Each structure stands twice: as C-alpha cells, then as structure tokens.
Amino acid sequence: MNNVAKSEAKLLTIIMTDRPPVRIRVDQWPVIAEGEADWVDKVENEGMDWTRKVDVSIVLRRHADGRILAYGGYRYRSRWMNESNETYEAGFLHGSANAPIANADECRDLCEIIEEVGNDLIARGGNSAHVNAAVRSAINDLPAEDI
C-alpha cells in the first residue's frame, strides 16, 4: 500500500460576462484584492419572518504570467411578499498569456477593473449602493502604493 498522500490542485469555476465560464487552479491565481458588502433588513411580525438580505463580493486574482481575472457576485434573498430572489454574476479576464511578465503593468488600472465588475453587476440589476460598497472594499484591499 502506498502511503504517499496525493495532493490535488483545488479548481474553481468562475462565471464570466458574455463568454463561457473559466476554470482555474486556485494555487496559480492568487487573490490580490477582494471586497464584500452585506445588508440585512429583518422584520418579524406575528411569527412571520420578512427578512431581506444582500451579499455582494468582488475578487481580483493575478496569474504569474500577468493576466488579471476579476469577478463578482450579487445575491438578493427575500422573504417579502411579491419579491423574488435574484443572483447576478460578472467576470472579466484581462491580459494575454503570451505577454511577457514584464508587460503585466500594461494591464488596465486595477481600480478600473474592479469598477468594471461593479458596473456590470449594477447593469444586470444589482443595487448600486450595495455594489459600490463592495467596489470600495475591494479597492481598499489592493496593496498599498509606496510614494
């Protein structure tokens, strides 16, 4: 019997905007920034739970070859009468796998890429106040610049 433990790379499938989903090896695409925003409106009346909840997340990953993968999700869950649950997802891939690593800085500004994900979530129906809070959170999570 072989006692050597096999380590399998963790895979993650990401929904993209206007293209098929992509699958990545998590260890090859480290997170460089992520932001979240949550909102809850909870009302209980005569034993009825009328909770509404919003969760927004935006993630930015960078591959060693310089490509940037930006994606996010907006989830609205409601128990209010005449309201339905909503889920929106967005994702963008920037850069080229064939570009030298030295050219990675030619990629669009990371703040603009984060804002692109947020704008797409809003265009799909996400609440702008909640999405913009997640955008700000992701931008604030970027590595600090030395000046």
Rg (CA only): 19 Å
| Distance between the first and last residues' Cα | 57 Å
Please give the domain count. 1
Describe the main β-sheet briefly.
4 strands, antiparallel
Helix content: 10-25%
The fraction of residues in strands falls at: 35-45%
Structural class: alpha+beta
Describe the protein in words.
The chain has 147 residues and is of the alpha+beta class. The chain has one domain. 18% of the residues lie in helices and 37% in strands. The chain is built from two helices and eight strands. The protein has helices spanning 110-123, 128-140, and strands at 11-14, 22-25, 31-41, 44-45, 48-49, 52-62, 68-78, 86-94. Strands 3-6-7-8 form a four-stranded antiparallel beta sheet. Strands 1-2 form a two-stranded antiparallel ribbon. A hairpin with a 2-residue loop joins strand 4 (44-45) and strand 5. Helix 1 (110-123) runs antiparallel to helix 2. Mean pLDDT is 85; it is low at 1-5 and 100-107.
What's a quick, concise take on this entry?
This protein is of the alpha+beta class and 147 residues long. The chain has one domain (29-140). 18% of the residues lie in helices and 37% in strands.
